Every structure is written in C-alpha cells, then in structure tokens.
Amino acid sequence: MCNSFFNMQLPLPAELIDHIFSFLQEYPSALKACSKALPLCSRLAERYLYANIVIDPQAPDVSHLILKNPRLLGCPRTLEIRSHFDTPAPISIISAIPRMANLVSLKICGPCRPHYEFFSTFRNCIQQSSFQELQLFHFPNLPLSILDGARNIKRLTLYDCAANEPISTSLPLLSLETLVLSNYQHPCTHRWAMRWVSHLTSLKLQEISLDFDWAAFPELLAECSNSLTELHLDMSDCMCYVSMISQI
Amino acid sequence: MYLIVAYGDELPFTLSALIHLKRLSIYVEVYSTEIETNWALPEIIRVANTTPAIQKVDLRLHYRFSGPDTTYLAQLDWSRLGHLKSNSTGKCHLIDLCVTGDFTRPDSIRDALVANESLMGMVKRGLVRTY
After folding, report:
1. What is the pTM of this model?
2. In chain A, which ranges are E strands?
3. Which of A133, A214, A222, B85 has a 20 to 30 A CA-CA distance from A117?
C-alpha cells in the first residue's frame, strides 16, 4: 500500500476513498489534509470541501475560487449568499447558480440594493431542477411573482420579505411541502403564499404580527387543510406587540 | 397573556379543518404579572383540542420573570395539561413541555416544576415529557 501510495496511485479504490471522505464533511481541516496527499485525492475531496458554501463580501476568496474554477461549480449542495449594506448585490455568483448542477439549497440574506438585474438573474437561477429549498431574508421589496415559476422548490422560508405587486391570476408552478413565514407584516405576502400551499405538510409562523398575520391565518390554514401534518406557531412577539398597543 | 386579552379571551381561529394534523408546536411568552389572571394554557388547550387527528403537542412557555423567584411556577395549575385531548376521540395528546424564563437558571425552573405534584404525576404516566 505504501509503495502504491508513493507511486501516485490511489491506495484504495476511488469509491472507497470517496466514501471515507463523505464522513469527513464536518471536518474541513481533515479533508484539506487528505486532499493534499495526492492529486487524485484532491479531486475526490473537492465535492465535500465545497459542498456547503458561504459567500460573504467580507471574505471574497471563496467566491473568486468558485468562479475561477468551473469544475467546482458542480460541488455545492448548499449555498448561502450574504450581503452587507455597503456592498452591491452579488450578481456574479447568482449568475453562476444555473451551472451548479447539484445545488439543493440556496439561502440569500437580502442585498441592500436589489435592482432589476438582480431579480432577473435570480428568476433564472431558481428554475433549475436540483433546487429543493430556498431561504430568503430581508427582501422588503421582493416581487413574489418570481417564485411562482420555481416548480422544483419544496421548502421555502421568507423572513422579512414583502410583496409589492398585485396577485397574479395565472396558475403557479410552485407547490410547497414546507413553508416558513417570519416577520412578514404585509397583507399581500400571505395571499401570495396561499397560492403555493395546496400540498403543504409543514407550516411554521414566527414573529407574527397581530394586525396582518392573525387576520390572514385562517385563510392560509384553509388552503392547506387537506395536507398539513405539522403546524408550528411562534406567538412570542404577539404579546410584545399587543403590549405596546395596550400602553397607547 | 396579552394576545388573549386582545381577542376577547379567544384565539381568532380553530384547527378543526386540519384533518391530517399530527403535530402542533406552540411557543408563547407569558409575563409574570399575567400568569394568574390570563394564563395562556386554557386557550391553547381549547384550540389544540379542535384538531381531529393530532398526536403530539410541543408546548414551549417562556416566562418573563421580573426576578429570579420561580416558586409560583410550582403553584400553577399544571393539571390543565391533562385536558389536552382530542374532542373527537377523547385520546390524550403526548406533550413535550419546555419552560424557560428570564433571570433564572434552568435548574431553578426544573426544581419548581418538580415540586408540582400534578405535573410530576403526568410525567410519571408518560403523558408529559419535560426538557
């Protein structure tokens, strides 16, 4: 085994090494060490090293690495894109998403300056077939009609996202199994959500406000009443809100 | 509980239409000044019992204590948890109960709950799990 190792051949069948590497996903430093043993090991380790990617403008190295090495685009299974107030929307990485053939989950923490190009690029990227989960945070002007066409997404989280457009009359392709609505506080958001929940099995409402959300809640429940098996209600902030009202 | 006060002692919905609902999780915050007068539990029980197929209720109560004293937790009427049962079948739900609070250590809350005979009786019968 030792000789074969130094002859630059894999000491074990590639499938076995790949299986071993799969257990090291939680230990990136160990994976990195293994990947340096042989060039072939490096290739095998890549899909685990880059399986869960976080893109942060304050640490742009990962983004540059992915964009400069097209073969790595097949590695990510989960991708989190963070933005900061003083950075532009991450169009370049969003544009690369359609080439991430194995991406299952995407989380975007709202860009502070979303514009037409961002939403147009985003609309294209959420069509891809591997996509199953989408989490959006802090998009106060998100055109929710974009989500109508995301036929493969089964789990959707909207945190502090609002609709700013009338409800479409066309049938949506999006049909969810899990929906998390948090801090949405906009009367249109639940009406958009009602279009996607006829097969919903899990509904979670967090940080819900009384004036908009509770009024909409029975309607939302009615739409998913034939399929819902799990309901999570976080009413913790309701009390604070009404407390504030009671003091007025 | 302010929410119940705001809605005339009733949550503004029932869950009777959710014929496949198996699990309900509820997280509420209760202010220490409201515990005796407007405790949330009866209303949660009323709503939960309207579901025809529910099997498990995760109940997380967070108490906004004004200080570290948790003795009144032991004095609360925890026997009400025994009323969590389906209106249609009469079968009791399995309850996962989590109690947390401000300004208190978890072991202080645990000791207060252990001192309540009614609650511990339900724990011993397997109806309630605390964590």
Report:
1. 0.83
2. 52-55, 78-81, 105-109, 133-139, 155-161, 178-182, 202-206, 230-234
3. A133
Q: Does B28 touch chain A (CB under 8 A)?
A: yes
Q: Give chain A positions within 8 Å (CB) of B29.
A: 235-236, 239-240
In the sheet with B56-64, reading across from the earlier edge strand, the strands are A52-55, A78-81, A105-109, A133-139, A155-161, A178-182, A202-206, A230-234, B23-31, B56-64, B94-101, B128-130
A198 secondary structure, DSSP code: T
| A51-247: CATH number | 3.80.10
Closest A-chain CA to B1: A239
A61-99 tens-digit pLDDT: 888 888 888 889 999 999 999 887 766 777 888 889 989
Task: Tell me the shortest Cα–Cα distance from B88 to chain A, in angstroms.
Answer: 17
B56/A contact by beta carbon, under 8 A: no
Residues of A with CB below 8 A from B6's CB? 210, 242, 245-246
A203: left (phi over 0), alpha (psi -120 to 50) or beta: beta
Report d(CA A174, CA A127) in Å as an integer: 10
List pLDDT tens digits, range B64-79.
776 767 777 887 888 8
Bridge partners, A203 (sequence order) = A179, A231
Do you know the residue count of chain B? 131
Q: Highest mean pLDDT: which of A26-35, A58-67, B34-43? A: A26-35
Nearest CB among B6, B20, B29 relative to A229 is that of B20
Amino acid at A26: E
